[in-house]
Specification:
The chain has an eight-stranded mixed β-sheet with strand order 3-2-4-1-5-6-7-8, sandwiched between helices. The protein is 52% helix and 13% strand. It contains twelve helices and eight strands. The protein binds guanosine-5'-diphosphate. This is Signal recognition particle protein.
Length: 297
């Protein structure tokens, strides 16, 4: 489970803080050095760690803490609050247009990140919320992608719009939106093609979709198992095509979790959901406070 190792290390630091009673500035500094190491070992972005420790230190060596009844608890509270802030403080929802106005959501990401699976997971969530989603198969390169989307769409009870692999993704997107208008769907989710690495052609294709149809939300899917690479991918996609929100998959796997703690701070874009397994129900809304509690144990 992600964060197990980080949690354990932080809990050890806090245990020794709690046992100390009144804390000296030196105690706090020593503890924060250990927090810093634990975060770096969890693969949190170096600059993010530096800023985080600085913020905690500034608050923790203040008068309130030193004169407080239980300084150890106070430091833990500050670490908790700063972790929540790091992850964006508030839960961010996918922004949907009201009523029958069609919201077009474009899903983007590298091949294998979990984009097609996540696309179907999101369709299920939106359906639960009373939306009428239509999935559009715009990944025309990976032979099994269309079929995979169709199978997953069927499992979710959501229609999949496909034109096979003989049309440009932007044209498929446009036709899907027309279909949605005609049939009363109010949300169109475009499953686009990924590549193994970020490349110009992929970015151009995504840009072309955005130029030719009105995309209201661009959601990037990244794989937590790839650690800081996931953060770098998010930076590149955001620079090239503009991203509104990020979904981090495979947080159920053996990942150190650093991407979850870095993405918001590095890209300025919110984490919307986290993927917690291969099943279509394994998608959780991202709550910064719950995640911080999970990390701090
Ligand atoms: P795409 O190439 O980005 O469309 O990726 P896919 O949707 O085909 O997913 C690639 C693999 O990752 C598949 O085996 C999925 O079942 C798996 N996967 C996707 N999301 C998750 C997740 O949150 N947790 C786990 N454990 N596996 C996932």
């Amino acid at each position: 489970m992600a964060f197990d190792s980080l949690s354990e290390k932080l809990q050890n630091v806090f245990k020794s803080l709690r046992s100390k009673g009144l804390l000296t500035e030196e105690d706090v500094k020593t503890a924060l050095k250990e927090v810093k190491l634990a975060l770096l070992e969890a693969d949190v972005n170096f600059k993010v760690v530096k800023q985080f420790v600085k913020s905690v230190q500034e608050r923790a060596v203040g008068q309130d803490v030193m004169n407080g009844l239980n300084p150890g608890q106070m430091v833990i509270k500050i670490v908790n609050e700063e972790l929540v802030a790091l992850m964006g403080a508030e839960t961010t929802e996918i922004a949907l247009r009201p009523g029958s106005e069609i919201t077009v959501i474009m899903m983007a990401g590298l091949q294998g990140a979990g984009k097609t699976t996540t696309t179907a997971k999101i369709a299920g969530k939106l359906k639960q919320k009373g939306r009428k989603p239509l999935l559009a198969a715009c990944d025309i390169y990976r032979p099994a992608a269309i079929q995979q989307l169709q199978i997953n769409g069927e499992k979710q009870g959501v229609e999949v719009f496909s034109m096979g692999d003989g049309h440009k993704p932007a044209n498929i997107a446009r036709a899907a939106i027309e279909h949605a208008k005609a049939k009363g769907f109010n949300t169109v989710i475009l499953d686009t093609a990924g590549r193994l690495h970020v490349d110009e052609e992929m970015m151009q294709e995504l840009q072309e979709i955005k130029e030719q149809v009105e995309v209201h939300q661009t959601i990037l899917v990244v794989d937590a198992m790839t650690g800081q690479d996931a953060v770098n991918v998010a930076v590149t996609f955001n620079d090239k095509i503009g991203v509104d929100g990020v979904i981090l998959t495979k947080l159920d796997g053996d990942t150190r979790g650093g991407a979850a703690l870095s993405i918001r701070a590095v890209t300025g874009k919110p984490l919307l959901y986290v993927g917690m397994g291969e099943k279509l129900s394994d998608l959780e809304q991202f709550y910064p406070d719950r995640m911080a509690n999970r990390i701090l144990g």
